[in-house]
Amino acid sequence: MIKKIKDIDYINNLSNYKVTLNNFNKVIGYYFDNEIVGFLDYSVMYEKIEINYIFVINEYRKKGIAYNLIKYVIDNYDFENITLEVNINNISAINLYKKLGFNIIGIRKKYYNGVDGYLMEVKHDYFSN
Ligand SMILES: CC(C)(COP(=O)(O)OP(=O)(O)OC[C@H]1O[C@@H](n2cnc3c(N)ncnc32)[C@H](O)[C@@H]1OP(=O)(O)O)[C@@H](O)C(=O)NCCC(=O)NCCS
């Protein structure tokens, strides 16, 4: 089950990534037996959505949880495009985004401690027909 998360402290203990809430971002969690096993931090800036971070705990990976978290955003917002940055070596995440229709549209030089990042995007048109 996917639900909005209010307990940010819990999320911030799951991975090295620390969520900080502001006027634009939201965090949703994937619940299994009442426990959060994955989360997605994203920002909604009018017609544009940015994925800030997605994480699934190890034991629950490769079951479609990350796919469904992003699909939830795709299905629940009117947006023009969704963008994100990803480390060029993060093959799992790049494959996940490609499976959802994202394309690489740019390179962010030395974005991650000296490693390049890809800027990826999917437009709303991709899902409409
Ligand atoms: C990236 C991550 C979120 C994927 O979560 P997940 O729930 O395991 O992903 P899903 O099961 O929804 O997989 C969907 C697709 O992603 C790709 N994928 C996921 N794990 C993969 C792996 N280990 N190797 C290759 N491709 C992978 C596949 O295309 C997969 O589709 P398939 O099962 O039909 O092959 C997870 O590995 C994770 O938390 N990694 C650490 C945090 C991270 O790197 N986040 C991304 C920051 S930009």
Query: How many beta-strand elements?
Result: 7
Give the N-terminus to C-terminus distance in angstroms: 27 Å
Bound molecules: coenzyme A
Average per-residue pLDDT, rounded, comes to: 95
Q: Helical residue percent?
A: 10-25%
Weakly predicted, low-confidence segments? none
Strand order of the main beta sheet, please?
1-2-3-4-5-7-6
Q: Roughly how many Å is the radius of gyration?
A: 14 Å
Number of helices: 3
Topology record:
Blueprint (H helix, E strand, L loop, with lengths): L1 E3 L3 H4 L13 E8 L2 E11 L2 E9 L8 H12 L4 E7 L3 H9 L3 E10 L2 E9 L6
Give a description of the structure.
The protein has 129 residues and is of the alpha+beta class. The protein has one domain: Aminopeptidase. Helix content is 19%, strand content 44%. The site of coenzyme A has 19 residues, from strand 4, helix 2 and helix 3. Coenzyme A binds next to strand 4, helix 2 and helix 3.
